[in-house]
Design goal:
Chain lengths: ~325, ~350
């Protein structure tokens, strides 16, 4: 029954970047399901593989990246090769980039920018495409006679740009939206409104992956939170519960920092073997150095990759 | 009162910043935009003041005016210069005095990726002031740069690196060291955290706190992150549509905001505690600086607004214990009841 509701999924994905003659592992066996009607927040620090996972889900990994193992599938179909991706990207799985100003064409007004996808990719007549664009913009919170619709990106406020990028991403009515840090660098009222847009999209039957830093906002607005560390999912579960009772020491550390604004122990060198987090972990012991813990399901659907999850204390 | 005024490192009086409207080739010049309207505050040495508000409220324009990047259209920015033993008004002083006084204010920008020159090593960036202004020798510069790197918590070998070899957090530390290289007594930080990871943000906050407490710098911390503002700054100033609407001790402003806008701003922030109330959306958008509503600029979005709010603009009223707010509906003595009404 849950299989039918899964729109996109990632199975055991390993991605390697080639940098300066060396291989850097960005994702090491990540599996995530994106389900109809749900917003999944992906939380982790810079370099944890958040954006790589987002890019892999739209088939836009950079040239120096290589998928070593695993695959992305959409509606049960494994996506391999650019041909298949072209069919799905934008119409099936859409991407909302982080930097809305850089993503929008400076020479196109808002209405044209949003209508571009429906017009050129879906081959709709310009008038029909414009109607689509207006619908998308309305859902993003623009009134249909808003003067902003005829403005160019430079003349919009930061919040308006963000909503235009959102409208452009949903104009082709994708089943899955990957939103890369849409609330970073936004003030609190605007961030809150952005999460309302994501929730609304999910309620209309799409699946949303929301990449973010903000645990408090994720606890409030997402259905599920997945915490990623050093290229692996270390904890995943219902949003409020993950924040109320973290079961992985890394989640607990993120929460402690978000609450107290006091610095956490710095990352030491990434461990070659064993648990990648053990250099910063207050619970680390000798056995952590030998094998990397697998994601294990606990009661209530929570999954945690730490054998000592019962000892994790709420900060 | 006067003693406090004398010891203030930075005194901003009735500061206004105007941007001239553009004139497109086909027609009339756009209306001028008053980004900052008559803002006043003091910052003492060893004190951090947070400047918070939504995007477009003018907080960055205040920062840029303090750093001398835009000329104020009205008002005064008085900075205490130790060498001269007196305060200099940046807005009215002559060019040479102003230049000397301006060095007392350092600035760090939001984006550490674009604010550092990609073609200079960290050493070149950090030694420029000493080389150009003080004509220091190479060995002096090396010592100075090493000391600067120590102060911002970077390893000394970072000196030979180019910005692209550094992480975002390291770059922001270099940007901070560059601001410190002119030996300022006041520091303006314009959204220095927003491009960083939360774990790096708190490290940067700890570093800034150390500079304020140990080196007695005066800090103006411009941010939209209310939590960071509270964690770092003892005082907080809230701006809306170019005006100061509330100023006071951070803990008091956060706990019992006087102005309805401050209240809405804090209510829009979700809490982390399991029993924290759901965040409340603030309807509407802030007005564009060229098209301010009459009366109180916040009244179209204010849930408590009465008809008088659309005709009469409120002035900043002193509530005692360092707090002031600009709202017609809260007056000294009535603030307890209005704060309760807002909370319910």
């Amino acid at each position: 029954m849950s299989g039918a509701a899964v729109l996109a999924s990632v199975r055991d994905l390993c991605v390697v970047y080639r940098r300066g003659g060396r291989d850097v592992r960005a994702l090491r066996g990540v599996s995530v399901d994106l389900t109809r009607g749900r917003v999944t927040a992906l939380v982790g620090e810079s370099g944890s593989g958040k954006s790589t996972l987002g890019l892999a889900l739209v088939g836009l990994l950079p040239h120096n990246a290589r998928v070593e193992r695993g695959a992305v599938s959409f509606e049960g179909r494994e996506l391999r090769g650019e041909e298949l991706w072209r069919e799905v990207r934008g119409s099936g799985i859409a991407w909302q980039p982080q930097d809305a100003l850089a993503a929008l064409d400076p020479l196109m007004n808002v209405l044209d920018a949003v209508a571009e996808g429906p017009c050129f990719a879906d081959g709709l007549a310009p008038m029909v495409a414009q109607a689509r664009a207006r619908t998308a913009l309305e859902r993003a919170g623009f009134a249909c006679d808003d003067p902003a619709l005829l403005r160019f990106p430079h003349g919009l406020s930061g919040g308006q740009r963000l909503r235009v990028a959102f409208a452009a991403a949903i104009a082709r009515e994708p089943r899955v939206l990957i939103a890369d840090e849409p609330t970073a660098a936004l003030d609190a009222p605007l961030a809150l409104r952005t999460t309302a847009l994501l929730r609304d999209l999910a309620e209309r039957g799409s699946a949303v992956l929301w990449i973010t830093h903000d645990l408090a906002l994720a606890a409030h607005a997402a259905h599920e939170i997945a915490v990623i560390y050093a290229g692996r999912i270390v904890e995943i579960g219902a949003a409020r519960q993950v924040v109320a009772t973290p079961r992985h020491p890394y989640t607990a550390l993120l929460l402690a920092v978000a609450r107290s604004y006091e610095p956490a122990p710095a990352a030491t060198m990434r461990a070659e073997s064993g648990c990648a987090f053990r250099g910063r972990c207050p619970l680390a012991r000798v056995s952590c150095a030998t094998s990397e813990p697998e994601l294990v399901e606990l009661a209530g659907g929570r999954k945690v990759a730490c054998p000592f999850h019962a000892e994790v204390r709420v900060p | 009162m006067s003693a406090a005024a004398v010891s203030a490192q930075l005194r901003v009086r009735e500061l206004s910043v105007e941007y001239r409207g553009r004139r497109p080739w086909w027609g009339q010049r756009d209306a001028d935009v008053r980004a900052v309207r008559s803002v006043s505050f003091d910052v003492c040495a060893g004190e951090a003041l947070a400047l918070v508000g939504e995007s477009g409220c003018g907080k960055s324009s205040v920062a840029r005016a303090l750093a001398g990047l835009v000329r104020p259209s009205q008002g005064a920015i008085e900075v205490h210069v130790e060498e001269l033993g007196r305060s200099i008004d940046l807005a009215s002083a002559g060019a040479s005095v102003r230049r000397a006084a301006q060095r007392c204010i350092g600035i760090v920008f939001q984006d550490p990726y674009s604010s550092l020159s990609p073609r200079r090593t960290v050493f070149q960036t950090l030694s420029e002031f000493g080389r150009v202004v003080r004509r220091a020798s190479r060995s002096e510069l090396e010592l100075e740069v090493a000391a600067l790197l120590d102060r911002v918590g970077l390893e000394r070998r970072t000196a030979s690196a180019f910005p692209h070899e550094l992480s975002g957090g390291q770059r922001q530390r270099v940007a901070l060291a560059r601001a410190l290289s002119a030996r300022p007594r006041a520091l303006v930080c314009d959204e220095v955290l927003s491009a960083l990871d939360p774990l790096i943000q708190v490290e940067m906050l700890a570093l800034l706190r150390e500079l304020v407490e140990r080196e007695r710098l005066a800090l103006v911390f411009v941010t939209h992150d209310l939590g960071a503002a509270q964690a770092l700054c003892r005082r907080m100033a809230v701006m809306y549509a170019g005006e100061l609407v509330e100023i006071g001790p951070s803990s008091a402003v956060a706990r019992a905001p006087l102005h309805p806008y401050t209240r809405a701003l804090f209510a829009a922030r979700p809490g982390l505690a399991p029993n924290s109330p759901a965040p409340l959306a603030l309807a509407g958008e802030p007005p564009r600086a060229g098209q301010l509503p009459p009366g109180c600029a916040f009244h179209p979005r204010c849930s408590a607004a009465v008809s008088e709010c659309s005709t009469r603009a409120p002035a900043l009223v002193d509530f005692g214990s360092g707090r002031s707010a600009a709202c017609l509906l809260v007056t000294p003595g009535s603030e307890a009841s209005s704060a309760r009404a807002g909370a319910s």
